[in-house]
Amino acid sequence: MSVPVIAGLGTAQPPSASQDELWEGFFSRHFSGTTRSLAQRIFANSGVTRRQAAVNPLLEDVSDWPTERRMRRYQVEALPLGKEAVGRALTAAGLSAGDVGLFIVCSCTGYATPGLDILLARDLGMAADTQRMFIGHMGCYAALPGLGAASDFVAARGRPALLLCAELTSLHIQPSSARVDTQQIVSHALFSDAAVAAVVVPGGPGYAVREVTAVTDTSTADHMTWDVTDAGFRMGLSPKVPQVLSRHVRGLVDDLLARHGVDSSEVDGWAVHPGGPRILNVVERELALPPLGLAASRATLDEHGNCSSPTVLLILDRLGRATPAARRIVMLAFGPGLTLYAALLDRQD
């Protein structure tokens, strides 16, 4: 069986705005009464300086749009963003769209049929026998099961696979309200838009995918939700999420590394999904990471916000472009379930 290797990454992001601009130009009026002062503090302590929006609330307020209108706009915005990310990933891997044996698309922010997988396969010129898979509503951790499926296909078939994570969280701003709803405020303060594609091939230079693993604590299923409503998709985010992660993350990582005879001190790159500053602080503490262990994750949160499923791939891209590039990487992402996913990567030249 072939060793699956990430041979190319491609990123694409819509225009950005500063967190201060978003607050002063839109969200300071979106919240009122006592909610406004709470929201201002949450925005200021979000760990986000800039983030991207395909539908920028400074230019266009979608908060009162019905879900149908938001879904139509999703197709308009996501298609060119996905095409840009896929094109860059294929170029980096030295492949054409016709070489792809399996095309996986992850997204929890928009749905349509035919979907992004079909439309992009058509527009990019993928072969008629290219297999496709759509992964929806897994949220922020979807990139890792997507990477696992791509890697399994490559190992079993010896053909390239392509993974695309594309999210437009900006389409799901909720209607304004004077009622204190901390979960919605946190969501509005953190989330951002992006598309990232990864090409996985049998062998060669790049990051070899050694294993993808997971643990789900179904007793906490209500702690993180993403509900389809008449006004877009609504985030539910319990303040207990960091506490649940603290119970599981060390065991998940220790077991993963032990299976490969690796000590955590031998990991020089940590791509940890920045669900927010508290999430990163908990992971840093539980894994006893060095002071700069999560620098790439914090920098990604600062510059791009939480982009849901593409975020952990943005961090991987940052670690791979560092000087020197990280040699051994642990990827961690979290989402509904509550679910924790982890992957172990080794760089090979």
Characteristic key phrases:
25% strand; single chain; 10 helices; Peroxisomal Thiolase, Chain A, domain 1; globular; 349 residues; alpha+beta; two-stranded antiparallel ribbon; nine-stranded mixed sheet
Distance between the termini: 19 Å
Kindly name the structural category: alpha+beta
- The parts where pLDDT drops under 50 for at least 5 residues are none
Q: What's the architecture of the largest domain in CATH terms?
A: 3-Layer(aba) Sandwich
What do we call the CATH topology of the largest domain? Peroxisomal Thiolase, Chain A, domain 1
The helix count comes to 10
Radius of gyration: 19 Å
According to DSSP, the number of beta strands is 13
| Helicity, as a percent range | 25-40%
Family: Belongs to the thiolase-like superfamily. Chalcone/stilbene synthases family.
GO molecular function, one term: acyltransferase activity, transferring groups other than amino-acyl groups
Keywords: Transferase
Protein name: Type III polyketide synthase
Structural features, described:
With 349 residues, the chain is an alpha+beta fold. It has two domains: 199 residues, Peroxisomal Thiolase, Chain A, domain 1, CATH 3.40.47; 143 residues, 3-Layer(aba) Sandwich (Peroxisomal Thiolase, Chain A, domain 1). It contains ten helices and 13 strands. The chain has a nine-stranded mixed sheet with strand order 5-4-6-7-1-8-13-12-11, with helices on both faces. Helix 2 runs parallel beside helix 6 and helix 9 crosses helix 10. It is globular. The mean pLDDT is 96. GO terms for molecular function: acyltransferase activity, transferring groups other than amino-acyl groups.
